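Question (not urgent): is this output format expected?
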Amino acid sequence: MLEIKNLSKRFGDQQVLDNIDLKIEKGKVFVVIGPSGTGKSTLLRCINVLERPEKGTIQLENHTFDYENLSKSDIKALRTHTSMVFQNSNLYRNKTALENVTTPLILVKRMPKSEAEEIGLSLLKKVGMLHKKDAYPETLSGGEKQRVGIARALAVNPDIILFDEPTSALDPELVSEVLDVIKDLAKQHTTMMIVTHEIKFARNVADEVIFMENGHIVEQAPPQELFENPKEERTKQFLAKNKK
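Got this back:
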């Protein structure tokens, strides 16, 4: 389980996240929706300490971290427990698909290369990319890069995988291949938190949907409840404009 309390983040005069409280149960898929610029991606980046919050705590399993007093070892531990899949995959351009997956295992987990490659091949197979194991990112489509990125995120066996709009940079015909991989992970009860504009996908994959605006969680509910019978007027307005 992941539990966040009083998470707050500022950029200059702008309060991007304002005392966020959130519980994510193990094996569940939480999908975050809302207008652009409302703090959704920043929330993920704060969980993974790519952005440093001003205050708040995060509990992962039996470990509690205070964002105001994080040590280097705390940050390393948090990034061991969490993995991030970015909008643009962020693959190493000078490494093959397999090397992109194995590098974190070899460098971070100090795993022997042979063992890392065994895991890497298994994960590339899992995301349908085994046939591209020796390919470099420049030869891959956007959807293929994202699938390699998902394999890399899975490699460190994190407690939770964070997806930051994983299909937003893709051509429409490539979106489904990435969403299908995420759906398969959901069926295997992989704990995930996904920021997306794909409302139909959110309906189909989420155990819980969070609607955010202006750095606050406006409403949170199971997908059928939130999409069919939202309680908050702002949620209703947003969904009326984003029917897909």
